[in-house]
Design a protein that fits this description.
The structure is a single chain. The termini are far apart. This protein is elongated. It has a five-stranded mixed beta sheet. It has about 450 residues and is an alpha+beta fold. Helix content is about 70%, strand content about 10%.
């Protein structure tokens, strides 16, 4: 019975180690990118699985068949993990850290669990000890994963925190407090195996749900990008269509212009030429930097602001090949401008929206300012005008803006940047400064 639970527990331990390695190392080896071959990627996957299998067999045989002493088992673990780490991408320091963390956590969990189980007088100490030690190891690795995700700017729901911490914890409690009361060793063994399988199933489902949510978010961003591109293409096509139409009537227009010039009807001539220009000039094009995505997003949003009756001011000076992830720029500009436009629709005249954007020396600066109205007289009376105005704005629009600004803040943090929010009189201002890849500066 003990041999069976050891084999199952050791297999589960390898699964935990593989998750720990993925925290410090990348599963996508750099050779895959160089080879750019699906077959090579598949071969490396088989090599990694083969390395885990050999590691599993040597450890299991050494413990169950040859009864190796702890010193030899530790050495075989270190050598096996070192060989497995070669199938992952990472530098020497990352590999050493992953191996040390895996060995240290595994040994600490085993010793701690055995010590506690002996103290409380557990009957089936080996069967329960193996499961509880592996579950404790698993719980620690899962929590490390989530903290790393938080550091990288990913959002983790409270329900997800509860799921990833509660399931292994309950498994530990059930193993130590409930299954130990069973008289039959076979019942304890069956219960432990079922608990391990339950944990694997639960975390497999959580992983699937995360992938679905991630794909849904990416699809929404792609739709925003496509909409921005369509807007920009439409803006560029309209003047071409009007010019083509104008070519058919160019002779008549020239005759009329010459006639007015000969009659020295200057004012009439200016109005006539102005009307022709109004027909062919781009409509809805507020900026033109040459960067189709950024032009499309800003022009699309500013058209909505114009529909809200806002006076628009732009000062955008960026290079055409700005080196930034399209997803990030869509999240930042889309959310900031959506929030500002929503506020403009809810405010009375005068309305104003200002967007400033510049890039120099690898630093991107973005500023969005919009007007909003508050009971400033009441704020002045209590001497806390700025705080109250900001608080009222936050309370008033938090329902719509909270998630958007949070997404912007997390995206800016990924670029080691800073987002500041300020309110003055009747304006709400969001300023962002963040690092991007180097490029040739542009002068506007």
């Amino acid at each position: 019975m003990e041999a069976i639970i050891y084999l199952v527990g050791n297999l589960f331990r390898l699964y935990v180690i593989s998750r720990l390695f993925c925290i410090f190392l990348s599963a996508e080896h750099e050779l895959i990118a160089k080879k750019n071959s699906f077959k090579f990627k598949l071969s490396l996957s088989y090599i990694r699985r083969g390395a885990f299998f050999i590691y599993y067999m040597i450890n299991s045989l050494g413990f169950l068949v040859f009864s190796w002493p702890p010193e030899i088992i530790i050495v075989t673990n270190l050598v096996g993990m070192a060989l497995i780490s070669l199938t992952y991408e990472g530098n020497l320091q990352q590999r050493v850290l992953a191996i040390v963390m895996a060995m240290s956590l595994s040994i600490i969990c085993e010793d701690l669990v055995v010590y506690i189980l002996v103290k409380i007088g557990t009957t089936h100490i080996v069967t329960i000890g193996i499961t509880v030690a592996n579950m404790l190891f698993f719980l620690i690795v899962i929590l490390i994963e989530k903290f790393v995700e938080l550091k990288e700017g990913n959002k983790i729901a409270i329900t997800e925190w509860l799921a990833v911490s509660t399931v292994p914890t309950l498994t530990i409690l059930i193993s130590a407090a409930v299954l130990d009361k069973c008289v039959e060793a076979s019942a304890v063994l069956l219960g432990e195996i079922c608990l391990i399988l339950m944990n694997l199933l639960v975390f497999f489902l959580i992983s699937r749900i995360q992938d679905m949510y991630r794909k849904k978010s990416e699809m929404q961003l792609v739709l925003q990008e496509n909409k921005a591109y369509e807007k920009q293409i439409g803006i560029l096509q309209k003047p071409e269509e009007r010019i083509s139409s104008l070519r058919h009537d160019i002779k008549n227009h020239l005759v009329a212009i010459r006639e007015m010039a000969e009659q020295k009807e200057c004012e009439k001539l200016q109005n006539y030429i102005g009307n022709i220009y109004d027909e062919i000039k781009p409509t809805g094009q507020w900026i033109s930097t040459g960067n189709s995505l950024i032009d499309g997003v800003i022009n699309l949003k500013l058209s909505d602001a114009a529909d809200a009756g806002a006076k628009i001011e732009t000062d955008v000076c960026i290079p055409q090949d700005l080196q930034i992830n399209p997803r990030d720029i869509v999240v930042i500009l889309g959310n900031l401008l959506d929030n500002a436009i929503r506020a403009l629709y809810e405010e009375k005249e005068p309305k104003e929206l200002i967007i400033r954007m510049s890039a120099a020396c690898g630093l991107l600066h973005i500023q969005v300012i919009n007007t909003y109205r508050e009971d400033t007289a009441q704020c002045k009376n209590n001497g806390r005008k700025l705080e109250i105005a900001s608080k009222r704005y936050t309370n008033r629009y938090a329902k719509h803006h909270g998630i958007g600004l949070k997404n912007v803040s997390e995206t800016v943090a990924q670029h080691y940047g800073q987002m500041t929010i300020s309110t003055e009189e009747e304006t709400f201002c969001v300023t962002i400064d963040m690092f991007i890849d180097a490029y040739e500066d542009v002068t506007c």
